[in-house]
Write a structure and sequence with these properties.
The chain has 9 helices and 14 strands. It is of the alpha+beta class and about 350 residues long. The protein has a single domain, classed as HIT family, subunit A (2-Layer Sandwich), CATH 3.30.428.10. The strands form 2 sheets. Strands 4-3-5-6-8-7-12-13-11-10-9 form an 11-stranded antiparallel sheet, with helices on both faces. Strands 1-2-14 form a 3-stranded mixed sheet. Strand 1 and strand 2 form a beta hairpin. It is globular, with a radius of gyration of 21 Å. The two termini are about 40 Å apart. Bound molecules: zinc ion (3 copies).
Length: about 350
Amino acid sequence: MSELRKDYYVPDKYVLIPNNIDQFDKFPEMVHKKQQSDIVSDSINCPYCPHSSKECDNLVLSFVVKEGILQRLYDTTEDENENWTIRVFECKHPIVSSTSSHKYSDRPFYREPACGYDLIVVPTPKHDVALSELSVDEWTNLLLVLQDRVRWLYSQRGVTYVAIYASRGLDNGTSIRHPHFHITTFSAIPPIIEKEAKTFHQSMNESGSCPACDMIENETNGPRQLFSTSGFITLVPWAPTYNYEFWICPRKHSTFFSKVTQKEIKDLALVVCSSLRGMDKTLGQADFSIAFHISPEKKNSRQLHWHLEIYPLVTSWSGLERGFGIFVNMPTPEDSARLLGDATRKELARLIGVL
Ligand SMILES: [Zn+2]
Ligand SMILES: [Zn+2]
Ligand SMILES: [Zn+2]
């Protein structure tokens, strides 16, 4: 039986699970294993490499790990310029503007200025590593810097939402291989967050319970769980938008990413690292995007149980997805979870030294 499923939080999203399983036995072969050779891996022209002077004007912060502790560098002398662990840049070609214009107009040609900050976080001076190849310590430091910027950005005027995201493969039309994260702020809440957060608000008001906490209780040790640690669970959602999509959620209720403790960040780093490595083992180095669904911290009525969503890009969409908002899933979320679960649990065991 083919079936239509609805998302946990977004009620108007439909996912179609076809029953035509035979056809999808071949699925692993159909997975588009995009190797990175066709992407220009040119560290000479890379703006994020240590030798580059291209982006130095846009440098906002540099951090270095000294005696195991991440420290901010205040003095960017030549020596330190070569010797950094993580850097934060202002994006050279920002997609939102820092200065406010007065371009407003009404329907049918509605527009408003897109104002905000557009930052790039570079988690390593090494050019040729994938995000999935960063170590647990590198992920810990990256997450700490992202958290630090979230705190700062939410204290700025005009910032309603802080969007944290990264991609492998085509990324806003560029293909810089050097691993990097984007942080873009908006003066309004992005539509998907608004829809999710509305469900959270309604549920909290009506029944006093958090839909994510309920979902996690139901999914723990179930057929869509990949693995869990003391603090986090990773799972393929009941109704994913993308094939092999998976989420990482804190197991206990948590709304502010900026308030996550250092211990939890370390646990999260281990979980992200194992799951991205497991994803690569399952899908080859397929393109993917990662999005942090965090709360808009200044809006009390729009708090959500934060989580990360990872979208492998292994198939392209048909007219059904693009034109009708019906997302076809194959293999089934349960089969995807089985494949990803085996691989991610192995990576976790390897990282904690059990294997
Ligand atoms: Zn580079
Ligand atoms: Zn919750
Ligand atoms: Zn979400």
